[in-house]
Structures are given as C-alpha cells and as structure tokens.
Amino acid sequence: MDENKIGTVIVESAIHLHRNLGPGLLETVYEVILARELEKRGMKIQRQVPVAIEYENVKFEEGFRADLIIEKKVIIELKSVEKINRAHKKQLLTYLRLTDIKLGYLLNFGEELMKDGIYRIINGQI
Fold first, then answer.
1. b/e burial code for range 78-104 (CB count within 10 A of at least 16 → b)
2. What's this model's pTM, rounded to 2 decimal places?
3. Which 3-state string (H, E, C) describes the chain?
4. CB contact at 8 A, 49 and 83
5. Which domain holds residue 7?
6. pLDDT of 51-66, one tens digit each?
7. Per the structure, how many domains does the chain have?
8. How many Å apart are CA 25 and CA 2, to the nearest integer?
9. How far is residue 86's CA from residue 40's CA, in Å, rounded to a whole number?
C-alpha cells in the first residue's frame, strides 16, 4: 500500500475515532485507540518509536519519539490542543527528515471537528 492510500485510511480512522470519543481527551488515549483501529484495518503499527539524531557520523539515541509510524511509510504525530501552531508542524517535519520518511500527518484531536485538525506534511515542505 502506498503512502497516499495509507493516508486515506488514517484520515478515515481519525474521523471515526473523533466522532466516537469526542475532542479533548489526552493524546495517549487517541494514540492507543487509533493504533488499534489501524491494526484492525491490516496495517503494521509502531508506537513511540525512537527517532535518533545523527551528527558528524555519530548517532545519538536520545533524539525524539514519533507517536506512530505506519507501515514504515507514514508518521503520525498526535495532539490534543486548542490550536495547532507552527512549532507542532516543525516537530513532525523534523521526524520526517530524521527518518527519511516522505509523508506525515499531524492530527489534532482537540478541534471541535476532526477535519479542522488534520494536517498533511510532506518531507521537505512546510
């Protein structure tokens, strides 16, 4: 399955989840349940994946943690905040760059309507 098809499933699952649970719960709640929903749809999910930093040929494992990586092709960063800001988008873009993954989704479950909380980020663009 390519990145765009995976993205379609992610968006559908996020909207379904948001309709059932509503906005404003802790990010961890959405992470656990979204991972389960995607697994039920046959996807391979990794949660809280360490994202290392490499500098001058030295790898630092103390880097970051990506919330979800789907099929090793798409990163999902989850938020449950009133509004997404530029720093949230840059966080996901950093994960994309460090992992060399092309596509990511920033999902804000804090929005009243999930469609207003979905941001598609492509590696190299913001």
1. bbbeeebeeebbebbbbbbeebebebb
2. 0.92
3. CCHHHHHHHHHHHHHHHHHHHCCCCCHHHHHHHHHHHHHHCCCCEEEEEEEEEEECCEEEEEEEEEEEEECCCEEEEEECCCCCCHHHHHHHHHHHHHHCCCEEEEEECCCCCHHHHEEEEECCCC
4. no
5. 3-122
6. 988 889 888 887 789 9
7. 1
8. 30
9. 32
CATH of the domain at 115: 3.40.1350
| Percent share of the chain, pLDDT over 90 | 85
- Token pair for residue 49? 């994946």
Average pLDDT value for residue range 32-42: 97
Asked if 69 and 102 touch (Cβ cutoff 8 Å), the reply is no
